[in-house]
């Protein structure tokens, strides 16, 4: 599956969260304490759940548990998941293998494309260029005709909190959410090292400092 359209629920809120990279305690604090996720909400995760941080298995278990408990959680494929599938597929145990294999490259909603790294607007069909969705670092100028009023929400490339906030404040067509959460393991969270969430309806940015040790 390359991507899929997700219809907005009538009652709930919608959030997107950037790269988690094994920072389970920070992820849970953001979801439970800051967001207060309910079963009426929709939560989009932008990939890279593994590596760098200390509790990658707990991150995966938490995502799987939320989905099994009827929470509307929509995880995307990141480049770190793709590398694991390419290099060590036979070593991945169920249910993690199935979880990784089933991860889509993007989600589309009424007003957003959600993707790990970005969309290549120079491609004949940006929604078929899965390599760019996982690996691109600098987006070409947005194709307004293709986007049709939608915005691209992505992770992968680390941006400062100020850069993320400004893009959201200006309602720019490309909205980054990766603040380098894992960097908070070795330095005080400030401009970097937070796990960021965006309320897709109110455009509120929520930044959770890294609490993993």
TrEMBL record:
Residues 16-158 form the Calcineurin-like phosphoesterase domain. One of its GO terms (biological process) is RNA decapping. It is an enzyme of class 3 (hydrolase). The keyword Hydrolase applies. One of its GO terms (molecular function) is bis(5'-nucleosyl)-tetraphosphatase (symmetrical) activity. CDD domains: MPP_PPP_family. GO terms for cellular component: cytoplasm. Transmembrane segments: none annotated. This is Metallophosphoesterase family protein. It comes from Xanthocytophaga flava.
């Amino acid at each position: 599956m390359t991507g899929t359209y997700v219809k907005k629920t009538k009652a709930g809120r919608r959030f997107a969260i950037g790269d988690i990279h094994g920072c389970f305690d920070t992820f849970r604090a953001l979801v439970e304490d800051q967001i207060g996720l309910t079963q009426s909400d929709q939560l989009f995760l932008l990939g890279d759940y593994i590596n760098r941080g200390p509790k990658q298995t707990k991150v995966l278990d938490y995502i799987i548990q939320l989905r099994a408990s009827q929470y509307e959680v929509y995880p995307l494929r990141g480049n770190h998941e793709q590398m694991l599938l390419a290099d060590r597929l036979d070593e991945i145990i169920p249910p993690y293998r199935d979880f990784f294999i089933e991860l889509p490259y993007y989600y589309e909603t009424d007003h957003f494309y959600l993707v790990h790294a970005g969309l290549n607007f120079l491609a004949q069909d940006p929604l078929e260029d899965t390599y760019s969705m996982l690996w691109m670092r600098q987006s070409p100028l947005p194709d307004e005709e293709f986007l049709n009023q939608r915005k691209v929400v992505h992770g992968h490339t680390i941006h400062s909190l100020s850069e993320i906030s400004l893009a959201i404040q200006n309602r720019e067509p490309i909205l980054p959410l990766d603040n380098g959460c894992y960097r908070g393991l070795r330095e005080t969270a400030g401009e970097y090292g937070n796990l960021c969430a965006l309320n897709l309806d109110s455009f509120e940015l929520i930044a959770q400092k890294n609490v993993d040790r």
